[in-house]
């Protein structure tokens, strides 16, 4: 049908609203015979009709990008043989290898790209390498292949996060294990000076926390704002992570740069189960932060159902303590 349309004068360079041409669609759908026809071993047919094998669509993606995105390994091979640029980037700086690293079906495509000169440490505009992409999407086998082909384990994206940070953020325990086995630094700081353990705790992945702790990371190491991983778990209300950290020896009275303990965070976010666990472990209910606020002040301001407030009062929280401006918990509850 395509051959017939071309013989009748169909415009091979016609494009849709997103600037996608016939060769983009053929590559995306895996129609190898159509790709061969449109790009048929390059040469005269291609040149006569004005087809560019590296023609980008409206997002800067070439046919090779879209074939890699959809895991069309036969098409990828054909495009490479026709001279497709394996390192051409789109508008966001992503190369075909980034797409292959993220794709559900990209294992063979990855081999083809790397075998034909794809740069394994190429960075997008936001600093992500293909290894970062495997970490986001949990592509375990592809992360191994990229590492074996020379990927930098502790490469940082623009926020300072390494693939280990990203794996922890998205809860990919197998990837964490692979990265640590290959020398990833668990004590490397990322966004806001946070460590991978901070991100695992913030996202509520207790298995990832356990794996990171087993590598020997100092549990009470703070981020740029003085917050430990226990602050992170208390803030988001993940009881499993919080109990794991407490049982591993986390300091429950450790204060951040604002003078707030993990109990302040649990109270401020109405995370009553974490609050119960912290108080039960011996956390001080009347500790003051730099504003002179106790956890009770925060609970009074935010606790709509009263669980945190009642529990703190039952455990000797003092409602008469005033902050630096002279306000007590009753004032906060009334505001």
TrEMBL record:
It comes from the Eukaryota. Keywords: ANK repeat. This is Serine/threonine-protein phosphatase 6 regulatory ankyrin repeat subunit A. ANK repeats lie at residues 1-17, 18-44, 59-91, 92-125, 126-158, 159-191, 192-224, 225-257, 258-290, 291-324. It holds the Pfam family Ank_2. It comes from Coregonus suidteri.
